[in-house]
Amino acid sequence: MTSTATRSRENTRARLLDAAAQVFAEAGLDGATVEAVCERAGFTRGAFYSNFESKDELFLTLAGTVAEERLNAVREQVTGMAAEGALGDADPVELVQRVMDAGGDDRLSVMLMSEIRIRALRDPAFGEAFLAQESELVASIAEIIRDIVDTGAIALRLEPDLAARLLMIAWEGMTVRGAMAADGEARLHDIASEALGRLVEALTV
Amino acid sequence: MTSTATRSRENTRARLLDAAAQVFAEAGLDGATVEAVCERAGFTRGAFYSNFESKDELFLTLAGTVAEERLNAVREQVTGMAAEGALGDADPVELVQRVMDAGGDDRLSVMLMSEIRIRALRDPAFGEAFLAQESELVASIAEIIRDIVDTGAIALRLEPDLAARLLMIAWEGMTVRGAMAADGEARLHDIASEALGRLVEALTV
DNA sequence: GTCTATAGACAGATAGAC
DNA sequence: GTCTATCTGTCTATAGAC
Predict the structure, then answer these.
(1) Looking at the 3D structure of chain B, how many domains does it have?
(2) Considering CB atoms only, which of A29, A169, A176 is closest to B170?
(3) What is the rounded CA–CA span in Å between residue B134 and residue B137?
(4) Mean pLDDT value across chain B
(5) Between chains, do B124 and A182 touch, taking CB under 8 Å as contact?
(6) Which residue from A88, A158, B21, B159 could staple onto A163, CB 3.0 to 4.6 Å apart?
(7) Beta carbons of B117 and A170 less than 8 angstroms apart
(8) Are A181 and B131 in contact (CB < 8 Å)?
(9) Interatomic CA–C1' length for residue A3 and nucleotide C11, angstroms
(10) Is the same domain home to B68 and B19?
(11) Does the structure show a pLDDT above 90 at B152?
(12) SS3 of B188, please?
């Protein structure tokens, strides 16, 4: 049923979304021009307006797919870790880092998330959606925390939900600051990881 | 030595900066127009370009004053708390909240800080300045933490510097999410405070 | 034939800077 | 208030792929 035409169309949309992620991250939602997105994707504006209603619809679609991918990545990590039964004996610090790695920590992801965050602050409806999606993410992280605690390997000084939320926020804050440092993002991940590890140690008994 | 002319000039600059804080917060750095800033300040664009070289210089100046005010507010709280000798017996949770209150937590401050953060991500030189200023802030917070620990009233499960950094990041993350919630900012401060308090409890012995 | 993408030009609006 | 530059969104005529 999927004709080559629709396949090609999906492909065009995907390429436009990929390009949009880069351009929005680099120039910001306002600074990014439809022209720039098209140029990077290798299309003309004609193709763009044949696939998206407006720049705003493009951004909303992009934000939706990013959110979905983030959530899926974390959930896969969670179910994967549960399946391999690495909960009881593994280092909790390492486990947390594995889950957090699922959310992007490269410079582009950080900047794109910042744009999404700004939009969530400015647009109440989008903000609610953002918070709802993030709550699902937190729930997934809290789930793995609960599983680990249930094995009796460690005890937590905070409820799993609040701990998950704080870990996520701390991770975000550290990666953002890492991305600001001019000396490259090589250390970005390491710095964030180390700080997160110390926080986890402090929160576990 | 300050003639009425320079006094008036300073006044104009101050009003433009106040207006800029609002407009930049609401519309973003790109979305904000010089016209909108002037209109809110009650001036024409002519007056603007007589006081600032460009929109960008206005933003940079504004970011500088915001950073300075933030740092001063926190330092005042710190020295104030040290002076009144409330360190030994007071609830550490309450102390942390007092310090954090010094950084703005209203909707406008949150959005303006987000704009500054985005710019810091995009402009390496500005990013370095931002990080340097924030390090001073962290140092001030760490100082008060160290003072409290020195009284022997509590012990910390984390070095004061890292604890200060994490508290600041957690505060920022919670206030941002509070500002996203459509149900108003009445609870913004309370939600952030509660989460912070729980974190402090978990980090203290 | 049908659908997608292209090039190019269009208007309308708006911005920054002076 | 002017000048210049730019962007969005639209439209047409055209070509290519299946």
Answers:
(1) 2
(2) A169
(3) 5
(4) 89
(5) yes
(6) A158
(7) no
(8) yes
(9) 37
(10) no
(11) no
(12) helix
Element (H, E) at A183: none
- B95-112 average pLDDT score: 84
Mean pLDDT score, B179-199: 81
Tell me the residue type at B73. A
- The token duo for A59 is 């951004």
> Can you give the pLDDT at residue B94?
79
Residue with tokens 């917070």: B141
Q: What is the pLDDT at residue A171?
A: 93
Minimal-distance CA residue of chain B relative to A205: B202
**pLDDT less than 50: residues of chain A:** 1
Nearest-by-Cβ selection for A121 from B30, B110, B174: B110
Question: CA dist B106 to A138, B172, B190, Å?
Answer: 25, 11, 12
CATH of the domain at A175: 1.10.357
If one compares B48 and A182, the residue with the highest pLDDT of the two is B48
Domain, as residue range, for B170: 60-203
pTM higher than 0.85: yes
Q: Is B131–A195 a contact, with Cβ atoms under 8 angstroms apart?
A: no
Are A102 and A182 in a shared domain?
A: yes
Are both A39 and A59 inside the same structural domain?
no
My answer on whether A36 and A83 are in the same domain is no
